[in-house]
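Data availability (excerpt). The following record was deposited with the supplementary files.
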Amino acid sequence: MKKLILSVTAVMILCLTVTSCALADGKWWNGNYYDGSDYNSDWYDMYIVSSTSPNGYCYLYSEPSDSDSSRNLGRHNNGEKVRVLVYNAKNGYSLCACSNGKVGFIRSSSLREDSEPEYLYVYSTNPYGYAYLYSKPTDSDWESRNLGQYVNGSEMQIIEWNGYSEYIYVRSTETNDYGYMKASVLYTLEDYHWEVDYTATIWHQRGYVYLYSKPSSDDYVSRNLGKLVNGETVYVLNWNAGNGYSYVKTMSGKDGYVQTNCLN
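Predicted structure:
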């Protein structure tokens, strides 16, 4: 009889332990219980982690706070999808279910709705052929880190405009790096093709013009890169490069400056 009682007690303890473990991965909130399975439920909207502070990731907490009383349940990188169970549940935090089965709180400011992404494409003429991605919306070495160089044509997903007129917060679809890039070097696909594909032909009464390394014909300032003959087609990269010159690229791949009035 004693063995039976002990067995029943052991089973009850085991059941309580299993129940406790199951509840540990979930969360009661306002009388409702949420667990990891809610991540697969279409009842809740999908959001994407898009954090700028800290930059590139955020944390999941056991309570709507990052205080010592709230446990850190793990790091989630930008681009990761979460189900928002209760948006702005408390203190600027949203209750979320993550793909790893954990339920907790993420700052609402680190989340954006999972909608159709928008893309822009790098097209820079100064410097020509590439642009930089920065950790902050500035190119100051004191305030921002250079996160890498991206060549013209690189695809960038818009994450947030952030209200900055000169920079856009983007994600490189090639490297998955997040950062800020100057708005002046980012184009829609349609505008990018217009810029890249715009051509002109050379014409001068003497039958040719010179291509220079700088927008000047002064030997002390600029190098003569060779002749371009009448009728030759060039890509116009910048119509107004200064001093009456345009920045062009020849069909052979050489780039430089020619007088704008010699382009038709």
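Summary of structural features: The chain has a mean pLDDT of 82.
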